[in-house]
Amino acid sequence: MSEEAIVRFLRERGSRGALQSEIVEATGYSKSTISYFLTKLESKGVVYRRRERGFGLRVWLKGFESSSRLIRVGMVRAAEYPFIFDFKSRLEEMGFGVHLRVYEDGVSLMSDLVRGRIEIGLSPLITQLVFYAASRGKFKIIASGVSGGGSIVLRRGVALSDVRRAGSTLASTMDVCLAAYLRERGLSDVEVVYFDGPQRMVEALERGDVEMLSIWEPYSSMLESKGHKRLARFNDFMGVFPCCVLALNLADEGLEGLVADVFIEALSKKDHANGASKLGGLINVEPEVVRRCLAEYEFHPKFEERDVRGYLKSVGLEATTRWVARALSYC
Prior knowledge:
By secondary structure, this protein is of the alpha/beta class.
């Protein structure tokens, strides 16, 4: 029976629930049949349905839907999120359960965001724009976040003229800022090698697999302490620009404004030293190192549209500004 198959599948899914399309695929019944029986089950109080942005209806067995108050937050392994614990606490005070997850790079984070595996992402604006276009706008970008914290680092003992390979991460702030740096200095012959996380980048520089890195804090400072040369901070040649900002893919679109407001409140705190100490434990870096890195960042409750447009123009993405204007929300 269709109803029994649906209930059995949803029981297996537990608190995750399932998209209505997944129930169709799992049971082999037609869309219309599944829709008909779900309507019957909903009227009996057996199941609970809720619409998710860009994905359709998600369904739970009644009693399992309490996990809809769970918010999963993804962040890149970096020193720029000392406010994340205050953000988490404020959401928990409002009755949400909050789970923090650290990612090695923005691409893997955004891949999970568009698949609904996390609801909130803190990642590079550039990466978010790539995924926004690819997913046809299945999430919202809030122009609130952090600038600074990235640098071009040269391997110790290597002259700039001897650089043949430079390391970066794909479709990221590191990527576009490295391209801008190489272009300005006439280093068009340098090969860019992409890595899936900061640790592998650091190891590659130490081994000499690459002579240069475009890398973020705390790793640029850690490399500098080992004798490698910080050639330039991104802000030195890019000015103030949005690096990592807030991306939302909440099942309940009505919560977007609330979550954005809570995020901005946490970001606006004057003192992030305590959060920096906690962040060290989360990203597996000495707390004192993370605290020292705070000076590398500027925290922006709101980026102005002109800042975003200027940034895109400086990295050669001026042609995207029309649809980017639709993608971003300026709180």
